[in-house]
Predict the 3D structure of the following.
Amino acid sequence: MVEAAEAVTETHGTKPLRVGLDIGSTTVKAVVLDQSDALADALFSDYRRHHANVRATVAGLLADIHQELEKLGRGDEPIHLAITGSGGLASQTASTCPSFRKSSPKPKPSTRNIRRLT
């Protein structure tokens, strides 16, 4: 998947836009950043209560993001999507996007593949 993202990046000559979704127990927050990495220069940002209808709220946010990017003439640029928050786990299972939880414990290292050096 990384190779595909790099191929898209090379095709367009720019870094992909980054879309971040934070899906919490009561709200969904979204931000779109470009190469500047400055929050003050965000192409889009919004905060919405989902009233337990997470899918519809996320779908609405993604549609609004696409509409805003179209207005800016950037609707055809590749994106990287990252999802975080307690609701992100449920959303991740329905997509191919990675999900990250702030409160999740660090994975324990596996010793299965470690060979003894002698």
